[in-house]
Specification:
By secondary structure, the chain is α+β, with helices and mostly antiparallel strands. Helix content is about 30%, strand content about 35%.
């Protein structure tokens, strides 16, 4: 309201810190799955775990096959949450006309996610995304020529060289998940 003497904040107790990797050229933007980086100490990430729809779908089938219905329900909820964050991130990147690699960050509590920020730069944990996806590009000079790129830094170079001539790549799964652990001296 008009009274500037009060600040009301939402208190989130049991949260996770999830990120969605984005890449775009100003005309298109796609998401490359997520990362859970909730395990931190002194605001430094200790563990990064990639979150992919493929991984969650596979786990969901395993739980259902084993008759582990409560676990399957949790996985179904988490899969829906990842899909929602990914869709929102991609929409955000398209609206921004994102022309590089960026990270869409959210706080997750229970079955809800809350947008936190977008880092419009590559982050050190991008390697976790590279473990699970590669990109298939079409040569802007020859539509019959396709090639794959496993590095987001190399993809950034392609974006810089070809800009809007570069067509939206196809996301190709490499592995179901990836993990990166960091050692922090304190």
């Amino acid at each position: 309201g008009d009274n500037k003497n009060f600040l009301i904040e939402l208190n989130l107790e049991n949260t996770r810190h999830n990120e969605i990797q984005l890449i775009g050229n100003g005309e298109w933007c796609i998401e490359l799955g997520g990362r859970d980086c909730s395990l931190q100490i002194h605001e430094q990430k200790l563990l990064e775990v990639s979150l992919t729809e493929e991984m969650m779908e596979s786990a969901l089938v395993e739980y259902e096959t084993a008759g582990q219905i409560p676990q399957a329900k949790v996985m179904q909820t988490d899969l829906g949450l990842l899909r929602s964050m990914s869709k929102q991130a991609e929409k955000f990147g398209n609206a921004l006309k994102l022309d590089s690699v960026s990270t869409f960050e959210c706080i997750v509590e229970g079955n809800e996610h809350y947008f936190m920020e977008v880092n419009t730069r590559i982050q050190v944990e991008h390697r976790v995304t590279e473990m699970v996806y590669k990109l298939e590009f079409t040569n802007p000079d020859n539509p019959e020529d396709k090639f794959t790129v496993e590095s987001l830094v190399a993809s950034m170079l392609l974006l810089k060289c070809y800009g809007q001539r570069l067509h939206c790549p196809k996301r190709i799964p490499r592995f179901l998940s990836g993990v990166e652990a960091r050692l922090n001296a304190t």
